[in-house]
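Hey, resending since the last one bounced:
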Amino acid sequence: MNLNELILPVLIILTGIVIGFLFEFLIIRKIREKCLESNWEGFKVVIKSLRGLSAFCFTIAAIYVALNYMVVDAATLTNINKVLTILLVLLITWFVARLTSGFVNLYTQQAEGVFPSTSFFGNITKILIFAVGIMVVISFLGLSITPLLTAFGIGGIALALALEDTLSNMFAGLNVITSKEMLIGDYIMLDSGEEGYVQDITWRNTTIQSLTKNTIIVPNSKIASTIITNYHQDQKEMLIKVNMGVSYASDLEKVEKVTVEVAREVIKKLSGGDESIDPYIRYNEFDDFSINFTVFLSVKEFVEQYRLKHEFIKRLHERYDEEDIVIPFPVRTVYMENNADN
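The structure tokens again:
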């Protein structure tokens, strides 16, 4: 085959690539914008599944057309057709896996209370579909699946030992999901100190977003074996404590009255305050220089405590100044012995 005979096939292939990219960036983008206006989330799943496939599909189609204008021997043509068919099967598998996984994730999001809204089941679905696609390719190549399954069974034992940590994380993730003791959006704290909102539970890791917007990635096996405090399980409302101290000269009845009044005002003022439980204080200690007590306030969820404490401490300090209630500095009395001989 000389150079002149290659010009037309190369032009056809390049044209297919260009059309594929233009179709992706013009047609698919326009359809995506229209789908965003729709109330049905399924349109978004379909468009997301098609993303990136246009260029490959048009390129394969262009190669098929270009082969008709190329002079190649029968054996080479057969091999090229086999490769293109395998690529087409893999592309279809890729699309079906993304589409099915997307709808599975969409269903788990909508079926709240039936399945936790995680990407775990979507990822498992994607793996199964890819496995089916590979089996189809193997059958197309004329290979017997039965010996391969036997070989995979033997090799699977060695693979399971090599991937012990990965499989442990996968089954731990499945256990966490099915137990429903931790759901997407829950605010949790691990016994190692990490805390934040649960973003996702995948087949390997659980991702947590802290209040500082950092992403914490924890292996599922660690999640399954650690002590977790879930601040959203059963109910989000919770009591918070603010430790205080006043002078020994204070009128404790007055201190209690003023403190509770301020606490009520702050809870009523802030949207995160919970008015269903009336704030109260409990005196608990005669300290070296103060009588200590704890103020109990209720918030609607864990993260609201920081703003509530902030406003409460500011307002209480201002009110104590108005009422002449003293928050004492640390005091220590030192006795010096007067020795006449020295």
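The domain at 169-230 is CATH 2.30.30.60 (SH3 type barrels.).

Sorry for the duplicate.
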